[in-house]
């Protein structure tokens, strides 16, 4: 059981009312990410990305969650999607950080 503030509960309710709202699922995932509840965050981002495949912010969060939950294949796919979406504007500091975490976790 997690305690959420009123705005967080409203966002959770919004995603339940309109399950096809990809941004709402991304916000639910971000709420879970802040509380370090990685499993619920993973499924919220997965649902949000099913609807909004071009949202690079959700892909960034999904990669982080996948690394924390040891879902290596999905983390690699997320990195691939990030490179496709932000080919010319990728933040190289962030990308090198994610790659270092990815390879550090493999050992």
Task: Summarize the entry for a quick read.
With 107 residues, the protein is mostly helical.
Word description of this protein:
The chain is an all-alpha fold and 107 residues long. Helix 1 packs antiparallel against helix 2. It is globular, with a radius of gyration of 14 Å. The model has no long low-confidence stretch (mean pLDDT 80).
**What are the low-pLDDT stretches, counting only 5+ consecutive residues below 50?**
none
How much of the residues is beta strand, in percent? under 5%
Measured as a percent range, the helix fraction is: over 70%
Number of strands: 0
Principal-axes shape call:
globular
Largest sheet: none
Label the structural class. mainly alpha
The overall pLDDT, averaged over residues, is 80
| Rg, Cα atoms, Å | 14 Å
Oligomer state of the chains in this structure: single chain
Q: How many helical stretches?
A: 6
| First-to-last CA distance | 33 Å
H/E order of the elements? HHHHHH
Q: Main attributes?
A:
mainly alpha; 6 helices
């Amino acid at each position: 059981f997690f305690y959420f503030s009123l705005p967080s509960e409203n966002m959770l309710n919004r995603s339940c009312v309109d399950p096809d709202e990809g941004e709402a699922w991304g916000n639910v995932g971000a709420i879970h990410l802040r509380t370090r509840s990685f499993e619920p965050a993973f499924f919220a981002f997965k649902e949000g990305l099913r609807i909004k495949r071009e949202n690079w912010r959700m892909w960034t969060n999904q990669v982080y969650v996948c690394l924390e939950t040891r879902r290596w294949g999905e983390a690699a796919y997320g990195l691939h999607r990030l490179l496709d979406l932000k080919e010319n504007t990728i933040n190289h500091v962030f990308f090198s950080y994610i790659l270092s975490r990815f390879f550090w976790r493999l050992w």
